[in-house]
Specification:
alpha/beta, Glutaconate Coenzyme A-transferase, 5-stranded mixed β-sheet, 259 residues, 19% strand, globular, 9 helices
Length: 259
Amino acid sequence: MMSSDLSTEELQAILLARDFRAEDRVIQVGANLPAARAAAMMANLSSHPDTRILLGIEVENLAGGRPVPPVHPFLFHALGPETGEAQMHQEAVFDNMSRPDVFFVGGLQVDRVGNVNLVGIPDEDGGWRLRGPGAVALATMSTYCRGYYILMPRHDPNTFVAQVSSITALGDRVRRAELGFPGGGPRLLLSPLGVFDFADTGAMRLRSVHEGVSVEQVVAATGFDLVLPDEVPQTRPPTPGELELLRTQVDSEGLLRAR
C-alpha cells in the first residue's frame, strides 16, 4: 500500500515520533511492538533528548551519545539489561505502570469508539476461536497514562468491528469521562491503510490515507461507519532526514523493513 522501499512499520514509527508532545517525558513500550520502540528511540535522538524510555525491564536515555540498544525479538529479553542505562525488576515494571506519559496498544480487534480487544475471539461453543496474549497491565496503563497510541497490524472488517468481543483497553472517550478515568485515552490509531483519531462523540474518524490508498478502500475495509471529513489528505511521507535517522541509527539491521 506504500512505496516499495517503505514498510508499514517504518511509516508507523515515523508517524508516532512526529506526534509525541513536549510534555511526554516517560515513554513506555510494551512487549512486542518494534515500531513503537523505534519511534521512542527516534524521539530520544531528536525532539525529546531528555525523555526516559522504558523498554521491558530496560531503562534508556540516549543523551550524551549513548548507543542505540540492539533490537531483541522480545522486549523482555534477558539481554536487554546488559545494554540499558539502568534496569528494573519485573515487579517494578508493574508498580510503575501508572506513571508513563505515553504507552502503545496493539489489538486483535478495535471498534468504532476505540475499544481494543487483546484477549481473544470467542467461538460459538463458548470457547475461543483465537486466543490473544491477554491484558497483562494493559487495562491499567491505558487508564492512567497521559495518552496512548493504537497500532493495528491488519485493517479489515474482522479486525475493525462495530463492537469488540472483549474490552482490554477502554478507548471510548464518553465512557471514560463517565467513569472518571484520569488518563488522556487514545490519541491516534495507525493501520496499514491510514491514520485515525476520535471525534468528540468518541467515534473513530479518518484523518489521512496512506500513499496508494483511497477513502473508498478504507470504508470497505472497516466494519462500521467512520467519521469522514469533507477532505481527507494523504499521509505526509517521511522526510529524507527521518528515514536516515530510522534506518542508520535506530533500525540499522532493517527489522522494520523485513516485517
